[in-house]
Every structure is written in structure tokens, then in C-alpha cells.
Design goal:
Helix content: 55-70%
Oligomer: single chain
Largest sheet: none
């Protein structure tokens, strides 16, 4: 068995060496185009991605082809295939080093979609995200080229994930929360972007990450940004409200059409709820979120929702909105110092709650969702 594995490894190494040679400029345009096409097909399978990721010479050849300045038309297709292959391979940890070594060339391809895809995959890791942010700053405009691309008729779908992964870092969030550039405001319309769930998911994730910065909550909830309706609208359905309830809602959430649909992706609904939950971390934030009729949207969402994880997030947020205010010194929930043993207990309770939801889903899959009562909002 060991001998057979060694033979397979040797054969794979030889094949990768041959592929790298065919991708080199000396091989000629036709050979390079064929090799790039073969590499793209190989990267479509997990085993192929691992094989390519472990061969720095092949990655370097692909990078050279993908980042060539203004390739002539016959070579342009080969460059696209090479870059598409790198998008796939960049998800492999083994590819991170060689790709980050070519960071200046990759940044030069922004805001193109494939380049955004490569960098989004690399930026899943915080150290790589920090290097990408530093590289963007060294080029001068920082995040501005990415934000400008949001204004295109059809922004590249990979742009959202890149912004999301960059915003996992405080310095990335500061770039998106730059008030002088109206940066975060450019993200808001994409919470309802129908052309790409990938882009929409990334933008919502970036907004959720920005909500960790509680010093900016007052500004985010103010009329200057008015983030709350953009987070609530994807969670709203076509339900009609009595006039007294309707008046409590922001104008954008009043009298929605009968064909209004909620966000179709459960993980995006959950991130929207998490963003609103973060905005309730401070007393002032809780006041604004309550006064804008958020409970009414959550009440109807709770009646409609079927996904256990999203239901749990919805119920937690409802409890914050209808519950009593925290005591003195606890007003900012993001600043509360939780003892380690309490944190461990809360994590255990979260795991138990998740398991209960999983069992409940299995046992009650056929039951109607409206059998679960929503917690009542106290009269005000």
C-alpha cells in the first residue's frame, strides 16, 4: 500500500510539473490555453484543488498567467481560466502562502469579480485579511475602489463576501464606518438585492459586523444612516397591521404589497436578526429599536419562520425588546464583563438549546408553525 501511494504521489508531482511547464510563456499560447482550461476543470473537484494547492510551481504559473498585464485577445481566455482556477484553489489553506506572495498583482485586478473571489477566500483567515487591508491602504484609496464597484449596474457577486471578511477586523469595520465617505450607506440597498444571494449574504454579513462597533450605534440608527428599516424590510412579509400598529412602523415598512416576500435564505435572515440584536446592546439603541415597531415585524416573522436557528435568534431578540432594562452598570451589554465560568455555562446552555431545537424540528416537522406562540409585547 505504501509503495502504491508513493507511486501515486510521484505521478501527481510529475503531472503538476508538466502542467506548470505548459502554463509557462515559453509553451506558447495554444498550450497555455489548454493547460489553463485543464487546471480550471481540475479545480472543480476537492481532490483537484488539494493537488493544485500543494504545488507552488503550478500556482505561480497560474498567477503569472492570470495577472499578466493586458493580455492579447487569444490569451485573455486563458487568463480568465487561470483566475477562475485560483478562485477555487484559494479556499485551500495550503494555497494561502503562494497567493499572498502575489498580493500586489491580485490587488491590481480589483474590483474584478474573480479577484474579489480569490481575496474573499484568503480573507477568511484574520491574518490574511489584515495583509489585504494593509495592501489596499498602501495602494492609496483603501476600500474606496470596492465601494465604488457597488455603484455598478451589476456589482461582482464576490464583492459582498470580500467586504464581509475584511469587516471581521476592527480596521475593516472602521473603513466601512468612515462617515466622511458615506461608506456604510452604500451597502444598505443590497439587503434586498435579488440578483445574487452571494453578494447579498456578504453585504448583510458586513453590516452585521459593523454593528459590533457600539460607539457608532447612535449614528447608525439616526436619520443620517437609518440602518434599521434596511435590516427589517427583508424580514417583513405581506401581513396587514391595524392602523395604530402601522403608525409605529418606519414609512418604508408601512402598507407593504400583498406579494411582499421575506428573505429566502435562512442564514441571511439570522444575520439580519443578529445585527438588530447588536444594535440593542445600549440603552439608547434599545429605545430606538423598540420605538420603530421592531416587535411587530418580529412577531409576524416568528409566526412564519420554520428554521430552528432563525426562530431561536428571533425569540432572543424579542425577549430583549419586551424584557426589563438591565440594572445600573449593565446598560451596555457589549461591555459587560462575563466571568469565565458563566461564559462556559452560557455556551453549554446554547448547545443544549440548539440540540432541543434539532429534536423539536425532527418531531414536529409536519406541524403548523403558528402552533408556537410568540411572546407578547407589553402594553406601553
Amino acid at each position: 500500500m505504501a509503495a502504491a501511494e508513493e507511486e501515486d504521489e510521484a505521478a501527481a508531482a510529475a503531472a503538476m510539473a508538466e502542467l506548470a511547464g505548459l502554463l509557462a510563456p515559453a509553451a506558447g499560447e495554444a498550450a497555455r490555453a489548454g493547460a489553463a482550461e485543464a487546471a480550471l476543470a481540475l479545480s472543480g473537484a476537492a481532490a483537484g484543488r488539494r493537488l493544485l494547492a500543494g504545488r507552488p510551481a503550478a500556482l505561480e504559473a497560474l498567477l503569472e498567467l492570470a495577472t499578466a498585464p493586458e493580455p492579447c485577445p487569444p490569451a485573455a481566455a486563458a487568463a480568465r481560466d487561470a483566475l477562475g482556477c485560483l478562485v477555487n484553489v484559494s479556499a485551500e489553506p495550503a494555497a494561502r502562502g503562494p497567493l499572498l506572495a502575489a498580493l500586489p498583482a491580485l490587488l491590481g485586478l480589483l474590483p474584478g469579480g474573480p479577484a474579489c473571489g480569490v481575496l474573499a477566500n484568503l480573507c477568511r483567515e484574520r491574518g490574511a485579511a489584515r495583509r489585504v487591508l494593509r495592501g489596499l491602504r498602501e495602494r492609496g484609496p483603501g476600500l474606496e475602489p470596492l465601494l465604488q464597484a457597488l455603484g455598478e449596474p451589476r456589482p461582482p457577486p464576490q464583492l459582498g463576501p470580500l467586504l464581509c471578511n475584511l469587516s471581521q477586523l476592527p480596521e475593516g469595520r472602521r473603513g466601512l464606518l468612515d462617515r466622511s465617505r458615506c461608506s456604510v450607506q452604500r451597502l444598505l440597498p443590497f439587503t434586498q438585492y435579488k440578483d445574487s444571494a452571494v453578494h447579498r449574504r456578504g453585504v448583510v454579513g458586513a453590516l452585521r459586523n459593523c454593528c459590533f462597533e457600539y460607539e457608532d450605534h447612535e449614528w447608525l440608527l439616526s436619520e443620517e444612516v437609518d440602518i434599521l428599516p434596511f435590516l427589517l424590510l427583508p424580514l417583513a412579509g405581506p401581513e396587514e397591521f391595524p392602523e395604530d400598529e402601522m403608525e409605529r412602523l418606519p414609512a418604508d415598512l408601512q402598507y407593504l404589497p400583498q406579494d411582499k416576500q421575506r428573505e429566502e435564505e435562512p442564514d441571511i435572515r439570522k444575520m439580519l436578526l443578529e445585527a438588530i440584536m447588536l444594535l440593542t446592546a445600549t440603552k439608547a439603541g434599545r429605545h430606538v429599536v423598540r420605538e420603530k415597531g421592531t416587535y411587530l415585524i418580529l412577531r409576524e416573522l416568528h409566526r412564519w419562520e420554520r428554521e430552528p436557528d432563525v426562530l431561536a435568534a428571533c425569540e432572543k431578540l424579542i425577549q430583549v425588546l419586551i424584557g426589563d432594562e438591565p440594572g445600573p452598570g449593565m446598560e451596555n451589554l457589549l461591555e459587560v464583563d462575563v466571568p469565565e465560568e458563566v461564559e462556559q455555562q452560557l455556551q453549554r446552555l446554547d448547545r443544549e438549546e440548539e440540540e432541543r431545537w434539532r429534536r423539536r424540528e425532527q418531531e414536529e416537522r409536519q406541524e403548523a408553525r403558528d402552533s408556537t406562540p410568540c411572546p407578547e409585547e407589553p402594553s406601553r
